[in-house]
Input
Amino acid sequence: MMDVYDMVKKQIALYRAYDARADREQRSGRGKEGKLSYGPCLLISREKGAGGSAVGQLAGKRLGWQVFDKEIVDAIAQRAQVRRELIESLDERDRATIRDAVGRLFHSEPIGPPGYLAHLREILLTLGHQGNVVIVGRGAHYLLPSEFGLRVRMVAPIDVRVRRIASRENLSLKAARVEVQTSDRERATLAQRHFGHDARDPLDYDVTINTAELSVEAATEVVMTALERKLAAQLKGSG
Output
């Protein structure tokens, strides 16, 4: 995996390349909410073992967008220097707007190190503002404006997910079931405690995909088609 610092440097470079163009706010799927522009983004929520990470990686490759999964987002939020560089790539007005938004959104107890949740939200809003990103997990679809991207939920029956995790992680079926059930509980708790949402609510997503009988490639095709339709423009890699 690319080092998180290298990913942030690449994201900053891509953002600045758009920033230098006169039509930077005319990207397909980009728009303004309040004082800040967002998008385009692909935001993937997933059950463990449903294939969301793999679909996110393939979609990102086809689109030419960087992919930020929960481990990468967490690493940026926790590393002060990396976080600072990403935030400081924005102009002063946009930084202030994002920090104001974080203050308004912060209505729950911090988790982990002090300020972690605020840092996490700051990173998600910054990536959403920069646009041309795939974000997998961490509740990004609750924070970022829905109209400037596609919100996808990846699901599969628990028995299917257990078999996949057992195979992928070389676990017994019993141990894999414990992992899947624990992950389901933790993700449901995070959605409810920190965002006030039920992770299973279909109205929080544009598309829900059952991957029980779909390959990663087939599921990615569904995502790409839905993204193109919602943003009403032909996107790189979707044809």
Remarks:
- The chain has one domain: 4-22+29-231.
